[in-house]
Amino acid sequence: MIQIEGIGNQTGKKFWRSLNELAATPKFKEWLVQEFPEGASDLLDTGSRRRFMQLMAASMGLAGLTACRRPVEKILPYAKGVEGLTHGVPQHYATVMNVAGQAQPLVVEAIDGRPIKIEGNRKHPLSNGAANAWAQASILSLYDPDRSQKVLEKGKASTWEAFQAAAKATFVGDGEGVRILSGAVVSPTLAGLRASLVAKHPKAKWVEYEPVNEDSSLAGSELAFGDRLRPQYNLSKADVVVSLDCDFLQLDNPGLNVIRDFAKRRKAVDSAVPAGHAADSKAAGHKTDEHKADEHQAAAPAAHAPAVAAAPVATPATPATESSTINRLYVVENNFTLTGAQADHRLRLRAADVQAFAADLAREVAALPQGLKILGQSDKFVAALAKDLLAHKGRSVVLAGPRQPAIVHALAAAINQTLGNIGETVSYTRPGRESSAVSITELAKEIGAGQVKTLVVLGANPLYTAPADLEFAAKYKSVATTIHLGFEVDETAAASTWHLPESHGLESWGDAVTADGTLSLQQPLIEPIFKTKSAIEVVAVVLGLTTSAYELVKAQSKLADPAWRQALHDGMVAGSQAPFVKPAANVKAVESALAAAPKAAVGLEVVFAPSASAFDGRYANNAWLQEAPEPMTKIVWDNPALVSPKTAKELNLEEGSVIVIERGGRKVEAPVLVQPGHADNSVTLSLGYGRTSVGRVGTGVGYNAYTLRTADAMGFGTGATISKSARTYALVTTQEHHDQAGRPVVREATVEKYKEESHFASHEDAHIELFQLFDSFDYSKGNQWGMVVDLQSCIGCNACLVACQSENNIPVVGRDQVSKGREMHWIRLDRYFTGTEDDPEVVYQPMACQQCENAPCESVCPVAATVHSPEGLNDMAYNRCVGTRYCANNCPYKVRRFNYFNWHKDLEEVGKMVFNPDVTVRMRGVMEKCNYCVQRIQEAKISHKVDGRKPIQDGDVLTACQQTCPAEAISFGNINDPESAVSKMKKNNRNYTLLHELNIKPRTTYLAKVRNPNPELA
Amino acid sequence: MADLAFDPKAVEQLSPPLVTGQPSLHDVTEAVSIHTEIETHRNWYIALAISGSVTLLLGSMLAYLIATGIGVWGNNNPVGWGWDITNFVFWIGIGHAGTLISAILFLFRQKWRTSINRFAEAMTLFAVACAGIYPLVHVGRPWRAYWLFPIPNADLAMWQNFRSPLLWDVFAVSTYATVSALFWYVGLIPDIAIIRDRAKTQLRHTIYGIASLGWRGSATHWKNYEKAYMILAGLSTPLVLSVHTIVSFDFAVSIIPGWHTTIFPPYFVAGAIFSGFAMVITLMVIARWVFKVEHLVTMTHLENMNKVILATGTIVGYAYATEFFIAWYSGNEYERFTFINRAMGPYAWAYWSMVSCNVISPQFFWFKKLRTNIPFMFVLSIFVNIGMWFERFVIIATSLHRDFLPSSWGYFRPTIVDILTFFGTFGLFITLFVFFTRFLPIIAVSEVKGMMIQTEHEKHYLPATTTGSTEPVKAH
Known about the structure:
The complex is a heterodimer.
Chain A: H1 19-23, H2 26-33, H3 49-66, E1 91-99, E2 102-111, E3 114-120, H4 133-142, E4 151-153, E5 156-158, H5 160-170, E6 178-182, H6 188-200, E7 205-208, H7 215-225, E8 230-233, E9 240-244, H8 256-267, H9 287-296, E10 328-333, H10 338-342, E11 345-348, H11 354-364, H12 379-391, E12 396-400, H13 406-418, E13 426-429, H14 440-448, E14 454-458, H15 462-465, H16 472-478, E15 481-486, H17 491-495, E16 498-501, E17 510-513, E18 519-522, H18 535-543, H19 549-557, H20 561-570, H21 587-596, E19 605-609, H22 623-627, E20 641-643, H23 645-650, E21 657-663, E22 666-674, E23 682-686, E24 716-718, E25 721-728, E26 748-750, H24 751-756, H25 760-763, E27 785-790, H26 799-807, H27 815-819, E28 828-835, E29 840-847, H28 856-860, E30 866-868, E31 874-876, H29 886-890, E32 897-898, H30 909-912, E33 927-928, H31 934-947, H32 960-964, E34 970-974, H33 981-986, E35 991-992, E36 1004-1007, E37 1009-1011
Parallel strand pairs in A: 6-7, 6-14, 9-10, 9-12, 10-11, 14-15, 15-16, 19-23, 20-22, 26-37, 27-36
Antiparallel strand pairs in A: 1-2, 2-3, 4-5, 4-16, 8-13, 17-18, 19-24, 21-22, 21-25, 27-34, 28-29, 30-31, 32-33, 35-36
Chain B: H1 8-14, H2 25-37, H3 42-68, H4 83-107, H5 117-137, H6 165-198, H7 202-211, H8 219-252, H9 264-290, H10 299-329, H11 333-344, H12 348-360, H13 368-371, H14 374-401, H15 416-439, H16 445-461
């Protein structure tokens, strides 16, 4: 029953901080010698004693002089009151931001002109109030002291004026030799400027390059439909979902609406069981958000647009005619992703074999003519899956992942067409942006041929992200004039003639087309903190325009005033989604393309996936994301190479072995993590690490997987070899134990079992009579806060974790401290493996303070620093806490977090701006933990009292985690109100109390997980 | 009286002499007082230099801790208490033997205690001093540690939480420290007076004069003294049981498997006496050799203490077995896991160190030869102390590191600061001893003499059996 770990297997590991240190290269040794690696020159002049005395005297004198001058502090009152602004009352503004290569619709909370929290835009169909971890964490980047702050010319400080003068001289004539390289242009304004630039300088070329992109999807649709189309999934209609290496719940997420729709269909399992109360009340949870947003969400405070809160528009309803049953998810993938974790059936295949699987499936569902099966071993899976798909024509969908080649996307399209899914569960739109004129490969060729004289890089970092075989770094340096606009002084900045600091999305005007084609507006919440400009502003400079970004964006939108202000208020132009096109797949073309496609080579493959933290590297300097545990591995501050247990055994690898991965003459060293459920003969590398120039947080964290990634292997490449080095590396994880030790922690059943035994979850409680010596406090009056977490829909994506970190001023402790078990996250996402090591299943359990009514922590605190509120909250009085840690010891859920050090000690002033002023910043030596966002409860209570309104209605208070959950897995509210969403959830059949037998009466309960396996595959 | 011929040899066999070599009363005074009077020996300075340095190390570690944060120790998220509370309970346990010897054995008229009680009481005090450091500095904000005391203060402006075992600890330990100090000091008064009377310089005379509170050795003094001593012994007796009972409540009152168990109070008390006696042996073996008082602290004393070690060690072993039985018998999954994990999990090395030191090693004392072998008992007493340290560590760390939810399981590793702080407390302990041996009589002179007189009486007037009176005679 109980598995005991071996003794002494933790010792003897060599600890090292970077691969450089490990390798002890001469460069690194030199670096060690210089105490200050960047910028500081060695003190070579030994000097005389006399000289020393002179210098000391002079510095003493100068030190005295500084005291003569008072520091300049500007305290400027508002000369005129700003309409709608009350000090300390948060304001909400809608905006849009390019997050991980996608335009994400957001609402940002600002207090006294300082943005402090990013949330999803509830009005936007893509978000419905949710935001992913990257979007929420980007607020930390805004206040990153390591941001690029100055214009640099050849590495020396310069000014915008100097650049403007230089630009005037450079951008003349027909643009011969001028190239512009940017990331994906999702902004119509920037696209418009691009058109004007090409019109003005006809020989100039604009290249788009995203290291993580939708190229193969568009190419696939071109194969199948003869048109570059973007699929739009409607999973609320899909009874059967098939993912072909598509992590649509996390890394390859095309929009948060996909997660929401998927989760809704998972929760629909309750409709199968009549006795209970179906989870139908979730919608109520978002009622108030609307109300709150209408009240506070105003247009920009900028001079151009005096704020007037506009009337709300109707939320575009999801065109959902939901079937009322649980869906079934099949996942075929190499690495264990969050989507794989939700799967009812998961087939682990090398990424290279997915193409053959897709072909087999296409033949089996008769999308392609019958032919030889390619993958023998998955016959049973394919047959059952095909049968299931054919039984759900028009109510199923096949998704192909961006790492797969175009042919897999084309096959998926063909299958969807055969099954009649197109127009039902998947529709197609034209991407709202033009494709780039030349690919980066061509650009590299042009540079190599000496055709490029001036290269402008807008917000991209090609020296880090470009395919390794292009040798881009060397070529870049050969260009006469290179101008780089970047958020950080990154790898490209260091090699550029000009480096220009880029504004954050919250500092600049802009616009973007979201994945569904909706035109969304980006309005700034704060003046640029440093002297920075956005890409739009820089292109305007290049074009010699004097119009401001605001005017450009407004002009581009073609909106006049009431509509413009409404669009600003909403953050988007309502109803501007791209129209669906009705394509027809050309099966013949797909078939011939399949025949022409190269067969997957046998042997070891390397897969390049974006990282859940750093994504493609752009969030490498974001400490919240670095410290957010990778959802599946729970590794922080690193990107281990993932291999299957079998492959690890074959190659004699164990966790922390350092391997050298070699492919096509390129090699990279990486520590290994043995990932249960990973495909054999496959190694997954995460991009975005191993940055050499990014800031104090991200520099030197992990290894750089781009060094292996070539233009022909952007998703994966075969023919790699692994050799084990003698070194080991200690990976740091927040969860060291991965099974549930036979305990009923996460309770799970199949649909069949759920139908037989509707209360299976609570039946797993120990059958003991609970006895209490003393009378309980009377909790029958007033607001009694409670929470229900639905494990059925939780996907483990970390959005709640980052939301909590942002809302509650939770500090970052760093890799070393996490290794000592001192991470501070108030909510952790416990991940457990069940089943076999080769083919495990995964369950997630968000775990924060459970607000026990009989709280074990409270009775043991000698100074009564943690006490119960009459509303059932387990309150923390931080300033009363002396820090005995007894409460944490006595907490059976181990959710209390102790400030072992002053985590804020090294914080710079600008970094402190991110703090939520409604939440105490805890000092060292005190205990902290989740308190159901008590500041939000208080805010609601105060505003209700001020307004003289009735008691708080259900949904008036949303906890940060609940608000942002894209899967809507968290319900929170007053459990005394029988009509509240949370009360209804508590009556759900699947409701259970964790550690019920301790009789501590936690206020948070869980809804058990139910999977829907195909009986034919049982 | 011829028929009741007194055979000294027979008596000696029946009850071995507690003072050997038949010294005169003056010899005893000399033996015990001389080290406070002679010129300071070079070795004393060396001892002070070494132990003082280690104490300074303790001071610097504590300064570093208070300046930086608890994070300099190895404590972490599941394991909120590590070496701090382990060492606290360890030192508190050490102190127990002193109170037991001075109070309970006094009440039971165990005469053999007289030669060792002063030393054991001093050990109690110094151990409590070492223990007392930990609860104060282990808190996250030590500058607020006074909030644990129910003293009026404007910062907190409210009562402490009387439901918390930590608060009970505050009362138990502070009471224990106070009563132990009083008891020790009261016992010291007649002996300090001896030193005062022998003083050759005015300074000595004044200092010891003040410290002896005007003791003149009159019958009234003796009467009051005896009464006070008896009362304090009576007060101390329940403390022997209560302090460690309450310390054990820190664990027993919690809900963590491995802590939440009703066996803890007696188990902790037995363990404390066990470790305390072992520490007395360790120190006494050294002290009687250094100060050449082998005739006062005889083999009988040592053997008796070893018997106590054997008894309490066996009780402790029985408690370990009971814990395992109950863990199985309870049917509680978590409880069972905790104990299996103790014996077979990542801390098995600590568990088996504890068992071999605490349960197996004292069993050697069944053999008289080993029980009376000084090098052997010295080594064994150190083993017992190591074992008892591990017992506290095992209880604290293994229970915390894996409790209910496997996701939160962790591991505790001490840091160098943990180790040096603990090492430093030994420095403080020894330093206090070094001062004690220099300035105060390490053996209760008056009590030993009283016992000698009684023995003399028995020799000469055995048939009369005038045992009731223990009238001491002031020595010259």
